[in-house]
Amino acid sequence: MKNDPSQPTSRAADPNTPIGFIGTGVMGNGMAGHLLEAGHPVFVYTRTREKAESLVNRGARWAETPADMARHCQLVFTIVGFPADVEEVYFGEQGLLAAMQPDTILVDMTTSSPELAQRIAEAASENGGRALDAPVSGGDKGAREGTLSIMVGGDREAFDAVRPFFRLMGKNIVYQGGPGSGQHCKMCNQITIASTMVGLCEALAYAESSGLDPETVLQSISTGAAGSWALTHLAPKVLAGDFAPGFYVKHFIKDMSIAAGSAERLGLELPGLQVALERYRQLEARGYGDEGTQALFHLFKED
Amino acid sequence: MKNDPSQPTSRAADPNTPIGFIGTGVMGNGMAGHLLEAGHPVFVYTRTREKAESLVNRGARWAETPADMARHCQLVFTIVGFPADVEEVYFGEQGLLAAMQPDTILVDMTTSSPELAQRIAEAASENGGRALDAPVSGGDKGAREGTLSIMVGGDREAFDAVRPFFRLMGKNIVYQGGPGSGQHCKMCNQITIASTMVGLCEALAYAESSGLDPETVLQSISTGAAGSWALTHLAPKVLAGDFAPGFYVKHFIKDMSIAAGSAERLGLELPGLQVALERYRQLEARGYGDEGTQALFHLFKED
Predict the structure, then answer these.
(1) Cα–Cα distance between B24 and B46 in angstroms, integer?
(2) Three-class SS state of B92
């Protein structure tokens, strides 16, 4: 890496650079906490101020708006809810982009649309800075324990500059390519999970309907060619009647909707994703949006 | 276990009992081989005699028909192709059932229909013996290495009697319940795999279409919540252009057809299984029936 302090790359990596963190929900709280623990000065902002209080108590400084934060920080991470929230945080009147200083790096870790990531990257570039899209997987547990998988798209030099900070938050940190590539990679992750969850719930429903003991079935099938993270970690929750969210149904629907829209633009027909998306929407319509993705099983039981 | 030699349970477990093995294809060859290696006298029969030759050279004795075998053996394993082949081997004119001695245990390890397994169990019982359905997973590798997962349905005592022989062929040996339960469990396995394969191929197709490097995508997604046996073992084969069969498309279609029919009888709607079955049938119609299940990717590439 370059040592010239006029280079944005080295400036952003400086441990004394104030870091901004927007969105201190279940994920952001753990992630911003790791930056604080590492001794970095951290500014926080989130829509509902109380959600940032524990971080403020640990030494984080409150920013009144994203724009306010952009005036203090040349490295800002964001992880908010929906693409509309990302739009507001970046393009809103009090958003990051209008107020950002030259050489700033903005990193959106929300799972959001690849096209929006590309628009942010362009706007950041026009303002003399850079942007990365860096969605994560690993859930609140991964965020808390600093073991997230982080899929990064955008400028390669900016990625190298931010990598030391990613290392505080995650373990499996992979550069996927230009702007939007992190989001596209996350879409691959969610497309894979979508059909896997359908298969898992169908198998458990079949097991029950055919009079088998589903736990005994899992003993036979979990460790072989049918095995998956979901079968190991979520199927036992289904059987225990535990539908508490590790990952919310409503957020999974958001992700699959983005993936479906993106696939359509790419001219790809993804029937498995369509089945999953339709089914999860039915599930949400029946009032299960705030349960975990394993709640899909409810639908197959009601059939 | 009981020691009274008049008990069928102990008679079948006797290491000197001649064992019959019908179906010496890719799977059966490895499995029957383990019985021979353990020193058991083994009779073999298969439709195409040459396929049994290596076993005969290793000391197995040739039976002219299933009925002939049933006259020599009170424990017979079968693993053939399709349910129609199972019908023939059991109910045919020269089949096992008509010729079986009392106290015989017949074990069908073919992946076949639960209803057929129940019919065989009834017929065996009427003839003074018992039958187990014991399909496997783990492929030719598992058969060769004796590491199969064996899912067993039928009489519990018969299972206990046969277990020492199952142990020669597999590692994960689980009793699932009464007649047909082994087949039902295998259907759960295949239902799980069906949607998992769809998700895997859709994700890889999306990765390519969106301009990502699919291998780099796998680095991000294989070890997290999207992870599966298929993603670890089959996705790299797809990317390497290796469509050689670990498990044949045509056999997977057979299994999914059985599962779909069985689900219908149970009044279950399984849309993920339907998508997979339709797609694999399209794949077979395009001439890919003799490739491995990872060949599903061809379809998504052609979209």
Answers:
(1) 6
(2) coil
* B 200-259 → A contacts, CB under 8 A: 200, 202-207, 209-213, 216-217, 219-221, 223-231, 233, 247, 259
Q: Is B146 left (phi over 0), alpha (psi -120 to 50) or beta?
A: left
Catalytic residue chosen out of the listed positions B141, B186, B250, B254:
B186
Strands B105-108 and B75-78: parallel
Q: What whole-number distance in Å separates Cα of residue B298 and Cα of residue B300?
A: 6
Number of other CB atoms surrounding residue A274 within 10 Å: 17
- DSSP string for residues in B220-260: HHTTSTT-BHHHHHTHHHHHTT----SSBHHHHHHHHHHHH
Instruction: For chain A, 303 residues long, give each residue's pLDDT as a single digit of tens.
Output: 334 434 444 444 566 789 999 999 989 999 999 999 999 999 999 999 999 999 999 999 999 999 999 999 999 999 999 999 999 999 999 999 999 999 999 999 999 999 999 999 999 999 999 999 999 999 888 999 999 999 999 999 999 999 999 999 999 999 999 999 999 999 999 999 999 999 999 999 999 999 999 999 999 999 999 999 999 999 999 999 999 998 999 999 999 999 999 999 999 999 999 999 999 999 999 999 999 999 999 998 754
Q: Three-state SS string across A41-106, please?
A: CEEEECCCHHHHHHHHHCCCEECCCHHHHHHHCCEEEECCCCHHHHHHHHHCCCCHHHHCCCCCEE
pTM of structure:
0.93
Alpha carbon dihedral A92, A98, A104, A110, in 10-degree steps, equals 10
| Largest separation between any pair of C-alpha atoms in chain A | 70
Q: How far is B181 from chain A (nearest CA, A)?
A: 7
Residue A32 at interface with chain B, using a CB cutoff of 8 Å: no
Q: Which of B90, B80, B96 is nearest to B135 (CA)?
A: B80
Burial B100-126 (b: 16+ CB within 10 A, else e): beebbbbbbbbbbbbbbbbbbbebbee
Exposure of A286 in the CB half-sphere (CA atoms within 13 A) = 14
- The H or E element spanning position B269 is none
Full set of structural domains in chain A with CATH: 11-179 (3.40.50.720), 185-302 (1.10.1040.10)
Half-sphere CA count of A103, side-chain side, radius 13 A: 14
Catalytic-residue membership of A186: yes
Could you identify the residue written with the tokens 């023939």? Answer: B88
SS3 B211: coil
Q: Give the whole-angstrom CA distance, residue A224 versus residue A28.
A: 36
Closest Cα in chain B to A139:
B225
- Contact criterion met (CB below 8 Å) for A45 and A61: no
> Which residues, 6+ apart, have CB-to-CB distance to B70 below 8 Å?
B20, B76, B96, B97, B99, B100, B101, B104
